[in-house]
DNA sequence: TTAATAAAAGACAATAATGTCCTTTATTAA
DNA sequence: TTAATAAAGGACATTATTGTCTTTTATTAA
């Protein structure tokens, strides 16, 4: 469904969100440890998230990554996926046709439409806030 | 969503299905041309479909690929996807956790459950017969 | 039996995704 | 101002996916 980069990216973002505000910044090492991801690769992905203004970062002593508290509600899964994998997941034709459309549909166009709609709805309506809440409550997990 | 192999595989299977029975076998060259796919790569994918008993093949003069008419109804999209990409599309955790489950769910487990269910339902209930019918009627397309 | 045909099979090539390592830049505290 | 810290950036390595090419095997028709 998503690329590995995107999976790590989502997990990293959720972890950073759980540390939001009270504990301040989180370092790369801790993030990679807590989401069980390759540290250098995770760094690359975080750079993308920072460039897309989803995560804030600061260098130097006491630096690290954070997400503004008042953005937890407004940041949706779709924003993270879009930043890392682009919009091809939603827009791409299920059978890889380059010009698949209502006027020139592939054989599964109509069938996929509904699945895609569900996926997009879910991604657009799932906020970082609710995802991080599950982690904080110990109901959901970011590794293994 | 699916790998390129799987996209070509589905398109090839549908095309072969449209030639089912009356016109007999279809050759590799024609298949690749009609679904606009790299010919040698398509050959490899067809081998997988043949091994999985989705497509029948025969060598030599007048040989080619075909699908038995009485199997058009029973072959579902899920069979093709499974043969080429395996079942990871449906079973894999959305965030890549190796042991994601109801007891140990990732943060999007519950959210993905419904999307996946929709996808699986669609794949399990879409037959080659109905997909090839759209092509025969000129309502759907296999390339561009 | 031989020649032509077409898929099967295996080896190889190109590209993209994933992952690592090292250097640079910015920040903080001493 | 210097040393320590931590992210940013660039170059490189590994692996998986996609794609090509050549040889082999099976089938048919002459």
From TrEMBL, chains A, B:
Gene Ontology CC annotations of this record: cytosol
Gene3D superfamilies according to UniProt: Winged helix-like DNA-binding domain superfamily/Winged helix DNA-binding domain (1.10.10.10)
PANTHER family according to UniProt: TRANSCRIPTIONAL REGULATOR (PTHR33221:SF2), WINGED HELIX-TURN-HELIX TRANSCRIPTIONAL REGULATOR, RRF2 FAMILY (PTHR33221)
Higher taxonomy: Bacteria, Pseudomonadati, Bacteroidota, Flavobacteriia, Flavobacteriales
Coiled-coil residues: none
InterPro entries: Tscrpt_reg_Rrf2 (IPR000944), WH-like_DNA-bd_sf (IPR036388), WH_DNA-bd_sf (IPR036390)
GO terms, molecular function: DNA-binding transcription factor activity
Protein name: BadM/Rrf2 family transcriptional regulator
Species in which this protein is naturally found: Flavobacterium aciduliphilum
């Amino acid at each position: 469904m998503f690329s590995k980069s995107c999976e790590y990216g989502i997990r990293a973002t959720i972890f950073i969100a759980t540390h939001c505000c009270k504990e301040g910044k989180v370092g790369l090492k801790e993030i990679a440890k807590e989401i069980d991801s390759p540290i250098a690769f995770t760094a690359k992905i975080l750079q993308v998230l920072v460039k897309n203004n989803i995560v804030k970062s600061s260098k130097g002593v006491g630096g690290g990554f954070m997400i503004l508290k008042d953005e937890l509600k407004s940041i949706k899964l779709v924003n993270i996926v879009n930043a890392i994998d682009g919009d091809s997941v939603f827009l791409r034709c299920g059978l890889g046709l380059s010009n698949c459309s209502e006027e020139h549909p592939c054989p599964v166009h109509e069938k996929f439409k509904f699945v895609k709609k569900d996926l997009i709805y879910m991604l657009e309506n799932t906020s970082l806030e609710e995802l991080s809440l599950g982690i904080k409550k110990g109901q959901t997990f970011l590794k293994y």
